[in-house]
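Team,

Forwarding the record for the chain on the shared tracking sheet. I've put the sequence and predicted structure together so nobody has to dig through attachments.
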Amino acid sequence: MKKASSLSELGFDADGASSGFFRPVADVPGTPTSQRRRLTKVSVIGAGNVGMAIAQTILTRDMADEIALVDALPDKLRGEMLDLQHAAAFLPRVRLVSDTDMAVTRGSDLAIVTAGARQIPGETRLNLLQRNVALFRKIVPPLAEHSPEALLLIVSNPVDVLTYVAWKLSGFPASRVIGSGTNLDSSRFRFLLAEHLQVNAQDVQAYMVGEHGDSSVAIWSSMSVAGMPLLKSLRESHQSFDEEALEGIRRAVVGCAYEVISLKGYTSWAIGYSVASLAASLLRDQHRIQPVSILASGFHGIPDDHQVFLSLPARLGRAGVLGVAEMELTEEEVRRLRRSAKTLWENCQLLDL
């Protein structure tokens, strides 16, 4: 038997329900439409571990007035929604809705897509491609139809190729289709460096760029702490920081996700915080620089006719991608980035889009 989530579902008339508690104030004009605060709506497509971690983080950080959840499993979806609704007394006032029908996302400002096959331990992100493209054909077109002005934030893996897929299927300008990319990879990179240096990870400036996956590129040449070049200091204090050691650190960053998956079966909390950070940058027009998957044609020697999405540091705001940082890279970093782009473009060309 379906349980009720509100008194109206139990037969109580919701119209004028507050009239018995509050006396209307006379002679108070209504707020002019031009002065009303525009409500913010975020939709999360996919109510699995990642999707719910993102929704919970956005909810607790008071980023939206309405959160819509969409999933193919109606019982799990309703259970997740009710579980969050029951915490209403401890949270900001946010309207929570859910449905298996994409129409519930209508009027979204930000649509976050996490739906997809779960990554199997040991499976590369690119091996997930064919299983997820078919799913995106069912998700993205109706999502774009119901929210034609929305920003699309893709989290499903392999995120770079699926961001390209979402761009093609939505018909949106590239500035409004963004992949979560290496934002989390960069956080893992900063965490490892911060632990070694015994400083706060927020004080470490370091980027992973390119593919969110095995061919990601660590940008050693520009990393710094408190404005000081970090690589030079590390090499002066640690003779072991040679090229082999640097590659070992890069592989450790890439392997972080695989380790978590092997231990608990999936990743959730870190990606939840990562995506919520991106949501704040976009919805609050913060103009923060974050490494996300964007259309990278023409950057760092990537051919203009290669419509490939990969991560570069981008300035994010309410209109989406506002600009891309012109990073100064070493020849080796450029070579690795182009190789990463080539790998991703080859996968994109396998798709009939």
